[in-house]
Amino acid sequence: MVNYKQIYEEYYNTLKSGVVPVIICNNCGLSSTNLRTSCPRCNSEQLKVIGAKEGIVYSYTIIERGLPITIALLLVDLNGIRVKANYFGDKKKLKIGLKVKPRYFKQELIETLVFEPAE
Amino acid sequence: MKAMVEANIIGFGFSYEKKTVLPAIELFKRASLEAFQIANKEKDDIDGLVVTAVPGTIDNAHDTGIFLISKIASKIGFKKLRYIDYVYIGGSSIVVATFRAFKAIESGLADNVLVIGGGKGNLLKRVRSSMFESTIKNIIDEGITYYELSMPAIEFYPTSDYALIANRYMKEYNTDDSGRAMIAVKERENGNLNPKSIYKGKLTLKNVLESPMVSYPLRLLEVTNPIDGALAILVSKNVSKSSITPIKLLGYGEATLPEPFIERENILKTPVRHSCKLALSNISLDKIDYYGIYDAYTIMVLLEIEDIGLAEKGKGGEFVMGDSFSPTSSYPINTNGGSLNVGQVGFTSGGVVLAEALYQLSGLAENRQVKDAKIALVNTLGGIFDHSATIILGV
User: A76 at the B interface (CB within 8 A)?
Assistant: First the structure.
């Protein structure tokens, strides 16, 4: 029986330390920022978590309607692996290709990483 | 042209309102009665029922699947059902449901299958917001596991994902908003020809580009608005009494992109190329008289145009600027105005673009009629390019 709690805790601790948790399959090497309980490619349950510190904006949007707030959403490329996350930096700097870095953010039920410009 | 199956669409009804106090099943009933009238059939002839509805668009949230089918059967009064099915795979559901009706008849499961798709889009519109019910820590503490859990982010699904796609498209192909925005202009020109279009009036490219931003770069006039209604289609083995020329199934294809959105190397890739290739295995694209193209967002239409094969990758905008969309153009597309102008009936655009194919092929499209419309291609999408279903119908 695989200890799912362990992979969840590794994921959570990585996130809390302010770097993006990347789940890697120990068997086939498939990586993703989606937390899973087994590998969708080789079905192995031997997964580990590593952290990714810096990325570039692959695409972005600024949501102005439909939510109670205006907020920027990024699709960040971390060396070929992607994560969807909010952007809390200066919106004027926002463009595809911008170097960004993660920051731990907690407020009520939201506990996640947000991104800001790296420089 | 040879039909895939010895069955035909012999009647249909498309009934919708911007907003109604009527219950969803009443809307289903109205569309069904219209279909029976065109087909010259009685409800007692119906022995198969395939239903599709977006969860949350029916009056009672628990009314999905078999519960919804039972309710429809008792409220509309179908007493002889021997085949039932419930389809929900997002925006392509109505096309998939129609195909299943044909296949049920081919298999001998039923002789007269009614397909109903719709619901009250307004019910779901109210609850759209980004909700966080638990933190990762709480999930761990409670011992809950998910097959897949994305890093939490505030988003406006699915609009913000399509906005990410639209923004990346402009970067990848070095284009601006105009080709995409022109889709809204051209669909409005078609909508102005349709007496039942909900959004009307002259629209310029400038109007679209100056409409309020929803999720950059997608603006309000590029995003469909959910409304209430239903499309009913009657597929039958026996065509004798119908008042329309029976509509044949000429081609069909489905395709899926299995990777989650964030794991796709190229977020501009769609499954449309594959579903169209399957659907068009016996028919060439130049035989198509009407195109129904799923249009919840302008960016979807742009990528579908390219992946159906009407334009090269990155050149969809040029195609839109050319002789296309209007009923008299070389490529009539969404001639009823699409869901951008009719409204997104039941929170999905599939019924809107499929219904227009049926009007066109039956010669019932009035002043927007495509001359000698014999063959229609309808392409629909579900999720964030997760699933595509393409159907070719003809008379």
Answer: no
Q: Using the beta-carbon criterion (under 8 Å), do B262 and A37 form an inter-chain contact?
A: no
Rounded Cα–Cα distance for residues B365 and B358 (Å):
9
Q: Are residues A48 and A63 in the same domain?
A: no
Q: Based on the domain organization, do A8 and A48 belong to the same domain?
A: yes
The residue segments making up the domain with residue A32 are 4-52
In chain B, the residue whose alpha carbon lies closest to the alpha carbon of A15 is B151
A13 lies in the same domain as A64: no
CA distance B250 to B280: 9
Taking the CA of residue B283 and the nearest CA in chain A, the distance in Å comes to 36
**Residue A84 and residue A33 in one domain:** no
User: How many independent structural domains does chain A possess?
Assistant: 2
Are A75 and A110 part of one and the same domain? yes
CATH classification at residue A80 = 2.40.50
Q: How far is A27 from chain B (nearest CA, A)?
A: 18
Same domain membership, residue A63 and residue A16: no
Which of the four pLDDT bands, split at 50, 70 and 90, describes residue B151?
very high
Measured between beta carbons, the chain A residues lying within 8 angstroms of B213 are: 62, 64-65
Beta strand spans in A1-119 (E): 20-25, 31-32, 35-36, 47-52, 55-63, 71-78, 81-87, 99-107, 110-117
CA-nearest residue to B158 within chain A is A66
Q: Which of A2-11, B42-51, B218-227, B347-356 has the lowest mean pLDDT?
A: A2-11
Q: Which residues of B touch A (CB under 8 A)?
A: 128-130, 132-137, 139-140, 143, 145-156, 159-160, 163-165, 167-168, 171, 212-218, 220, 260-263, 267
Residues A64 and A109 in one domain: yes
> Which pTM was predicted?
0.96
Nearest to B280, CA basis, from B395, B390, B394: B390
DSSP-derived 3-state class of residue B327: coil
| CA nearest to B356, candidates B309, B317, B391 | B391
Q: Are residues A48 and A91 in the same domain?
A: no
Residue A13 sits in a domain whose CATH number is 2.20.28
- Given a cut of 90, whether residue A3 has pLDDT beyond it is no
Q: How many CB pairs under 8 A join A and B?
A: 136
Per-residue confidence (pLDDT) for residue B348, from 0 to 100: 95
